[in-house]
Amino acid sequence: MTRRLYDLCGIDEELRFSPYCWRVKYALAHKGLDYETQPWHFTDKQELAFANHDKVPVLVDGDEVVTESYEILHYLDRVYPDRPLLGDTQAEARARFFKFYAERSLAPGMMRTIIMDLLNAIHPKDRDYFRETREKRFGRTLEEFHSPAKGLSQLDQALEPLRGLLGESNFVDGDAPAAADYLLFGPFMWARIVSTADLVSNADPVYAWMERMLDLHGGLGRSAMRIVDIEGAYDA
Amino acid sequence: MTRRLYDLCGIDEELRFSPYCWRVKYALAHKGLDYETQPWHFTDKQELAFANHDKVPVLVDGDEVVTESYEILHYLDRVYPDRPLLGDTQAEARARFFKFYAERSLAPGMMRTIIMDLLNAIHPKDRDYFRETREKRFGRTLEEFHSPAKGLSQLDQALEPLRGLLGESNFVDGDAPAAADYLLFGPFMWARIVSTADLVSNADPVYAWMERMLDLHGGLGRSAMRIVDIEGAYDA
């Protein structure tokens, strides 16, 4: 049986930047589970019809098809209970906050900073789709939305509680990483893959945590292809 | 044996607004533990000399003296393990984030909004001390720091992940409240006691949570004296 993860790819099939897919790749590594990835583009909606879904990640595990990153973490804890990701009832309730903190506090500031880099990293056949859906969401053009000054300032403020916590412990989940770390690190991988923007000062406890996260699971994050690894692809 | 909590008071001895003390009062009620409060003023430093500390809350429980709100929650779980507040290792690590989120994301926006109301609620003998220490911390006068427009906008942005979570569950800790709820609710009680500022729209899931929190433990929060209950004390 092969475990398969549908994973968003960009201008290169090995350029994988989806923050939601990164959560799942870290979670699978945390559990020590093998898998293959299936490269997918934003506009390959038909390929996910079997899952009744139109976005990645989609995990196919034997007969099981699971969508949405948080639900996949939940599924993994249920079927592979060793090395808990979300943990028991009280721990799981708290983990859920980090999903929202990542998506509603951290990612928006990053998005304003890296949006033009992100567009550049997306496969050409997906760019019209990306522009149309995001411009509708933001209520303005990507070029108008793009503002590293505003984005970095927003991110800096949003990171304040994380900075406090990581000044006292190595991981969000304590001495060892688990779901809260992976939920938050997804957006950092997203930005790292498509952009060279320095989101966090290297004197920040958040920076030291990012370095630890990159090293985890045999350097899973650090070894991932970045846009700067593709000759001629990045001219910022 | 009487359990005693040193609790900050304002212009009236029954006006109790410390966000850190509110965390502990909710935690004691959660555990079903009786206690008496000892009213304390910012400048009564000598009265806490026995605890080698200069701030409240200070909990005296038989021979034990415990300071700092988070440490008191920890102590209560250790000595009275029924009805866990922080919970096991993984849950506890995650709870710690909410301490920082309350203190570094939520309270600063509230502070800018209610600072002049807060000064007005403080006992006259404490006001010089309060002004001096806070103006040093803010790097400007209280009057310059005071900006409900900026404060409410900052708070609105900081509440975004909490809003997402509470759109899906009754409490931060799930179906029932525990440490994460109490850690976050402290600052909301602080603002409620000293000010009539509407921090959150009544259509916001955070507002519905605040109402639930006020009703908990026999209306512990709702029945607390507010500045508006003191005749002539509040003329905003």
Description:
The structure is a homodimer of 236-residue chains. Chain A has helices at 19-31, 69-79, 89-121, 127-138, 142-145, 148-158, 160-166, 179-194, 205-219, and strands at 3-8, 36-40, 58-61, 64-67. By secondary structure, chain A is an alpha+beta fold. Chain A folds into 2 domains: 3-79, Glutaredoxin; 89-224, Glutathione S-transferase Yfyf (Class Pi), Chain A, domain 2. In chain A, strands 2-1-3-4 form a 4-stranded mixed β-sheet, with helices on one face. In chain A, strand 1, helix 1 (19-31) and strand 2 form a beta-alpha-beta unit. The A-B interface holds A 84, 87-98, 100-101, 103-105, 154, 157-158, 160-165, 168-169, 171-174, 178, 180 and B 84, 87-101, 103-105, 154, 157-158, 160-165, 168-169, 171-174, 178, 180.
Brief summary of the model shown:
The structure is a homodimer of 236-residue chains. Chain A has 2 domains: 3-79, Glutaredoxin (3-Layer(aba) Sandwich); 89-224, Glutathione S-transferase Yfyf (Class Pi), Chain A, domain 2, CATH 1.20.1050. The first copy, chain A, contains 9 helices and 4 strands, in the order E-H-E-E-E-H-H-H-H-H-H-H-H.
What's the layout of helices and strands?
The structure is a homodimer of 236-residue chains.
Chain A: E1 3-8, H1 19-31, E2 36-40, E3 58-61, E4 64-67, H2 69-79, H3 89-121, H4 127-138, H5 142-145, H6 148-158, H7 160-166, H8 179-194, H9 205-219
Parallel strand pairs in A: 1-2
Antiparallel strand pairs in A: 1-3, 3-4
Keywords (chains A, B): Transferase
Domain GST C-terminal (chains A, B): 88-236
GO biological process, one term (chains A, B): L-phenylalanine catabolic process
